[in-house]
Specification:
mainly alpha
């Protein structure tokens, strides 16, 4: 059953779009790779300097710093992903075939 499902997905006419969107989804890892280390670093830095003790204010400040870092790091990849997903096709050909083509603003 699983082999049939995989064969059906791979043989579908929209497979190129599937892989195009999968490539753009890899940029979502930037969000996670920036958020968690910043949260831990800010939290431990504040604790080591003894500015705050463990509690809600410490977690709030750490979460705000992590959210800001994640937003700054993920913004360029989100723009690329949005442009790829919202593209209009001309017949069978995609206007934006690869992520690097998004940077071409002609």
């Amino acid at each position: 059953m699983h082999v049939f499902a995989c064969h059906k997905v791979i043989g579908a006419p929209c497979t190129d779009v599937l892989y195009t969107n999968a490539a753009s989804q890899m940029f979502s890892a930037i969000l996670y790779l920036s958020q968690f280390p910043v949260y831990d670093h800010v939290k431990h830095s504040i604790l080591n300097r003894r500015w705050l003790e463990e509690g809600l204010p410490l977690h709030f400040i750490s979460a705000m710093a992590a959210g800001l870092a994640a937003a700054v790091a993920a913004n360029p990849s989100d723009i690329i992903k949005t442009r790829i997903m919202n593209q209009k096709s001309t017949g069978k050909e995609l206007l934006i075939g690869y992520t690097i083509n998004v940077l071409d603003i002609r």
